[in-house]
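User: Working on a comparison across species. This one is Maleylacetoacetate isomerase from Rhizobium gallicum bv. gallicum R602sp. Can you predict its structure so I can line it up against the others?
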Amino acid sequence: MASDTVLFDYWRSSASYRVRIALNMLAIPYRSVPVDLLASQHKQAAHLERNPQGLVPVLAIDDEMLTQSLAIIEYLSETRPNAGLLPSDALGRQRVRALSYAIAMDIHPICNLSVVSHVMQQSDDPNAARLAWMGKFIREGLGAFERMLKAPESGEFCHADQPTMADLCLVPQFYNARRWNVDLSAFPRATAIAEKCERLPAFAAAHPDRAAASNSSAN
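Assistant: Here's the predicted structure for Maleylacetoacetate isomerase from Rhizobium gallicum bv. gallicum R602sp:
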């Protein structure tokens, strides 16, 4: 039987990946409806009705259509008891938001599909231009994130000793970094945290390869 909760997503989308992890962590059953970005399905009228920005993910939950991955995660944190995606104290929430924004607002937008496609169009060697662009901004962004993790509030995870919204942002960014052959050796603490998260069932089940396989079997 179909779930009342529907996630409109794309398997490789970092933003969708974050929300899949959150839904898994909170044990919220959902049905995934793929929106193929490469086929421009996000620009079609049906999807623009769900999200006027034409972006993924869109989460249909609680009789609402929610957009923007971090806003979705915060909504889930506020409406589900003991969610734990944000700390209980104001300073802790501020720090987790700062870590999350460092990835979701500073690295991700520069490296998304529309920006990189435009960069490739300006070059005589599009693939080399894409790799150079991705490498530069992912390395610089993760370098800043690694320095942020030196704060004493970091623990086994980005903040203290349980995954928060910050970890939900870090893991998809590491997936992209590996995809674009970024050397991660300069980020040992972030790497250790990401690898610890990736071993957790909620994160593993949200991995793009699992999402792609699930979407294929549903079609």
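For your comparison, note: The chain is about 55% helix and 5% strand.

User: Helpful, thanks.
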